[in-house]
Design a protein that fits this description.
Layout: H1 2-9, E1 13-17, E2 40-42, E3 48-50, H2 51-66, E4 70-74, E5 91-94, H3 101-108, E6 115-117, H4 131-134, H5 167-181, H6 201-212, E7 221-226, E8 240-246, E9 250-256, E10 262-274, E11 278-286, E12 290-296
Parallel strand pairs: 1-4, 4-5, 5-6
Antiparallel strand pairs: 2-3, 7-8, 8-9, 9-12, 10-11, 10-12
């Protein structure tokens, strides 16, 4: 059926919402025709694998790529992705049910490119819209923009459709109630969006996208979470992360995840691009929970 969709409808790929129960811990008894054809759980060398779903994802990925398409995979983020040695997707969407940006960053920061963080704003609390980019840009990630047609939540109230009593049902009822009381917005735009909506989400996304695009233009080399380096005169403070993006220019991204300001001394003179343009220097003060983007001009 999936290959027929790809062939008959002209779609450019698949989005796989890959909810599944790991066979290694499956509480249900085996069926009469069950064949344990794949490794499940811990292998002899200690690595953990989800063999059956890896095989299924491999079949799907092969069919999508054979047609020149894109495969997007979504899994709950604290699992990251199915336990597999192969990368059987192009983009990994994460963030469902996560109530804290720090948790999402730590769970996905070592995942292979490309991760699309979608923090569940129905549950999460952020200090401001910039926080989403603090958690993502230093790890070559960029948040998904929730936009388009307003999501009203009305579907959870349609007669004859019995949604199970869960968080999403309550969330939809709250969205629908707010939409009726505030027909001119601010709107909610997805299941994972907040109620009320976030009027600063779109302009903040556009602001950071302008900063991010030069860092990752085609041909860029990236070094994420740099530690052992001659870029700095001394080891970075515990809560400070540095990442380097090199293309026609050299960019250094400094992120302070701590609750207090930090001071960094670099060995290269760099000009500040964001949040405020500044002339080249080597001394940098980073406020708590904030991000600097620096540029070194090759002589």
């Amino acid at each position: 059926q999936l290959t027929q969709v790809l062939d008959d409808y002209g779609v450019d790929g698949l989005f796989n919402d890959a909810g599944y129960v790991r066979l290694a811990g499956n509480p249900k008894p085996p069926t009469s025709d069950e064949v344990l054809a794949f490794d499940e759980g811990a292998k002899a060398d200690g690595t953990k694998v989800d063999g059956a779903i890896t095989d299924m994802l491999g079949l799907l990925y092969a069919e999508v790529k054979r047609r020149g398409g894109i495969m997007k995979l979504h899994c709950k983020p604290l699992f990251g992705r199915p336990l597999m040695e192969l990368k059987l997707y192009d983009y990994l969407f994460t963030g469902e049910c996560v109530n804290c940006g720090d948790k999402l960053r730590k769970a996905t920061k070592n995942s292979a490119p490309y991760v699309v963080p979608c923090l569940d704003m129905g549950r999460a609390k952020i200090a401001n819209e910039d926080e989403l980019y603090l958690h993502s840009i230093p790890y070559m990630q960029f948040p998904l923009l929730l936009a388009g047609r307003p999501f009203t939540g009305q579907r959870a109230s349609v007669p004859g459709i019995d949604y199970k009593d869960c968080f999403f049902k309550q969330h939809c009822h709250a969205i629908w109630k707010y939409y009726q009381e505030h027909p001119k917005g601010p709107y909610t735009y997805a299941w994972w969006d907040s109620v009320p909506g976030r009027p600063e989400a779109r302009p903040t996304h556009a602001k950071w996208l302008r900063q991010y695009r030069p860092l990752v233009e085609e041909g860029t080399w990236a070094w994420l979470e740099v530690s052992d380096s001659r870029l700095f005169t001394q080891p970075l403070p515990r809560d400070v992360v540095a990442s380097v993006f090199a293309n026609r220019r050299l960019y250094i991204v400094l992120a302070n995840y701590g609750q207090t300001p930090a001071t960094i001394q670099s060995t290269l003179e760099c000009g500040c691009l964001f949040p405020k343009a500044g002339s080249p220097k080597t001394h940098w003060d980073i406020p708590a929970r904030s991000l600097l983007i620096l540029q070194h001009t090759f002589s």
